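Appendix B. Chain record.
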Amino acid sequence: MEDQLLKKIRSFFSDENWPTASFFVCRQDGVLLHAQRSKAHAMSSSDEQSVGVLMGGVWQAACALMNLLPQKSRDDFFRLSFDTTDKGVYLLPVTIGGRDFYLGTVFANETNPGQMKAKVRNLVVRLEESCSNSLVVPPPMPRASGQGRSDKNSELLFKDLSDDEVDRLFSAAGI
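Structure tokens predicted for this chain:
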């Protein structure tokens, strides 16, 4: 089923050409499913994997902060933007086959970031529509250790990760 998902995502992005932006589709645990890099962005494969993990962690941290505030509506559509006037990171949730993922965009030398973000939001809608009826993604398999996780904890990316493990994870990428 994961192969079907990857084929669908790659097929969708095959027609997309954004000279100033790179796209990353990640699972909620930060695992990178697809990267489409702009030729202007010099990244290695390990950099792409790091981007997926970092985007997943940043999104979850932002959600944890939002949980400190009173909820007005379950229909709130959150997005995360960290940018200057011409470069930055933009994260949006995307639902594919009934499961939640993230679409991350890294951009540089963008003349109109507001317009680019509107196009990325439209891209999310088109990606969801393209996958809505043709793909059902099963939930991730439980860990092999036999220790099941509760639904609440299964979405936490860094819950059981020590500082030493984080240092080792990112040392290979020079981060």
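Further analysis of this model is presented in Appendix C.
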